[in-house]
Amino acid sequence: MEKLTDIELISIEATDPKPRSFANDATAILIQEDDIETPYGNMHVAIQGDRSKQAILTFHDIGLNHVTCFQGFFSFGEMQPLLRSFCVYHVNAPGQEEGALHLKPEQDVLGNPESLGNRFVYPTMDQLAEGVHCVVEHYGLKSIVGFGVGAGANILSRYELAHHDRVDSLVLVNATASQAGWIEWGYQKMNSWYLFSGQLTNFTEEYLLWHWFGKKTRWESHDLIACFQDYVKSINAQNLALFIESYLKRSDHGIVREMDPMRKVSARTIRCRSLMLVGDDSPHIDDVVEMNGRMLPEETDFIKLADCGGMPLEEQPGKVCEAFRLFLQGMGYVPSLVQQRSVAGAVHTQLQHDLETRTTPAVC
């Protein structure tokens, strides 16, 4: 007969969970951090893993950096067996790394006459893509697996269009291939106006949280939102304003889904294997669907994650990790690595079949 103390759970001690933070994690092993000087500004690069392994190159979204965008996901327990076969190069846009100082006009190496004024001339999206190429050349990387979120996905897809031979595959989260719409332009223009003055207003904070998470997650995941609310206060407002301005002025990719076999050879399109991810409650879902419609169906896998907002790496890391593993195995990487967790049967079976046979899935 069980003891009364065991039945009433008196012997069990309750502990409060540790609050979320972006403090250095013992599992996030960085072997080095470098500031790479490029013709388009200095890019801070953090390297995680064995440099003799295949390279994964990441690029973050607006308002984030390699820590706030990728630390949680790449420190996730189920990612560790996968990362033993790769080396991750986290690239930060100029002035967006943690503790970055104000970008000053004299730091502008682009030779623009506007830099003689009182504002640093920030590189365009295409120039940031060329900056990525400078990083790839600096480390002597023969090919990369690109992993971009939001603005970072836009930059890495531009890099693939310009340097297809250096990109083995792409993972694009909340990606867009089109110009900014009028609504986005209006909100972001107001944000950049506030940020240029050094102010981080409630309006800007709310917009960034919406841009990262969307409405549903914004009001349901209180611990996650509280963590990013604390982080927002430490952002270098002026540097972020410059990045936002550059993202707002982005040009259309000009890619098309050409079905005619003769025209397909010369059509402008992303030709590497690509995995496109978006949450079903993401504020960017329309942009992702539109871009997916312009990609080659035989080279593109599209996944919509259920119960997820605008930041799948934080909200559904287990599902993203599983999709990423299956995608890499479809490319011939880590063939012997087995899944470390059970996934809902029907969804997992369909996803595994689609990725291994390289078809275009529609997973919800």
UniProtKB/TrEMBL annotation:
Member of which family?
A: Belongs to the NDRG family.
Its recorded name reads: Protein NDRG3
Looking up InterPro entries in the UniProt record yields: AB_hydrolase_fold (IPR029058), NDRG (IPR004142)
Pfam families recorded = Ndr
